[in-house]
């Protein structure tokens, strides 16, 4: 039995208390985030955040499954959503379903997310009808970086605005249980949130959304580079650098390990041979 949040719980948050969502890639971090989060997203951002790739385009099914399994092991109350990687759902409905089913079977996650251009309405409906809850992802779609020529906010021109609204409508009408809106101006996020029936989850998309998501490593200050929309709630990169530099100095000065961290020869008990 699971006490995890379900798609019903997430849908019920429409226009209610904002949904708290964070990315997670491994078991110990998932365990720290789980008590506070409604949704843990195993984002394909893991390609950049933990594997050092230049974009999310190189992320594979195997990477998503391995990290999805770890996050499931580390959590027990948040809904876990796993991103479908570039190339795993765009071709047609059948390959989208086979890959989504594989992710769900091998990780035990409750839902998948796809970067949903308007073309993807077919895939979303196909998956939902067959038992795969789908989270959409519109606006700035990182998997399209090679078409867009970089990561840029969307919907700041009228043409782009119409396109983002069309993406939102398509995902909502096709049955997405929630939609991530990335990198759009506040008025557009507000208009979409008012129009669609499912909750919207913003990243760089203002407080007008029904929930928020951040890349956990960004909000914990594990990178020097942080985009405008990130608030750093901690400065872990400084904490880690300070800790590692203290360790290195101690090792070089033979101050670590000390007596407390060292095993001594155990005297055998008298009756023991
Ligand atoms: O991959 C990711 O982390 C994401 C979120 C930032 C929405 O898609
Ligand atoms: Na993603």
Automatic annotation (TrEMBL):
Its EC number is 2.1.2.11. It comes from the Bacteria. Its cofactor is Mg(2+). Binds 1 Mg(2+) ion per subunit. Pathway: Cofactor biosynthesis; (R)-pantothenate biosynthesis; (R)-pantoate from 3-methyl-2-oxobutanoate: step 1/2. One of its GO terms (cellular component) is cytoplasm. NCBIfam families: panB, PRK00311.1. Homodecamer; pentamer of dimers. This is 3-methyl-2-oxobutanoate hydroxymethyltransferase. The gene is panB.
């Amino acid at each position: 039995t699971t006490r995890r949040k379900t798609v019903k719980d997430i849908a019920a948050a429409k226009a209610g208390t904002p949904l708290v969502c964070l990315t997670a890639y491994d078991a110990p971090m998932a365990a720290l985030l789980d008590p506070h989060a409604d949704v843990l997203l195993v984002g394909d951002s893991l390609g950049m955040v933990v594997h050092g790739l230049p974009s999310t385009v190189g992320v594979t099914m195997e990477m998503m499954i391995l990290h999805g399994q770890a996050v499931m092991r580390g959590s027990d109350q948040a809904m876990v959503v796993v991103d479908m990687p570039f190339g795993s759902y765009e071709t047609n409905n059948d390959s989208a379903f086979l890959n989504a089913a594989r992710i769900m079977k091998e990780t035990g996650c409750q839902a998948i997310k796809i970067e949903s251009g308007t073309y993807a309405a077919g895939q979303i409906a196909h998956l939902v009808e067959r038992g795969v809850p789908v989270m959409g992802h519109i606006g700035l779609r990182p998997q399209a970086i090679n078409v867009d020529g970089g990561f840029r906010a969307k919907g700041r021109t009228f043409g782009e605005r119409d396109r983002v609204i069309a993406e939102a409508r398509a995902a909502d009408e096709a049955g997405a249980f929630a939609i991530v809106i990335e990198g759009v101006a506040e008025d557009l996020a507000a208009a979409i949130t008012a129009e669609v029936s499912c909750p919207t989850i913003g990243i760089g998309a203002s407080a007008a959304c029904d929930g928020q998501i951040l890349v956990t490593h960004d909000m914990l200050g594990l990178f020097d580079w942080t985009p405008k929309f990130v608030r750093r709630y901690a400065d872990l990169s400084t904490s880690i650098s300070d800790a590692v530099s203290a360790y290195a100095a101690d090792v070089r000065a033979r101050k670590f390990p000390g007596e407390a961290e060292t095993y001594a020869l155990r005297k055998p008990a008298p009756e023991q041979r």
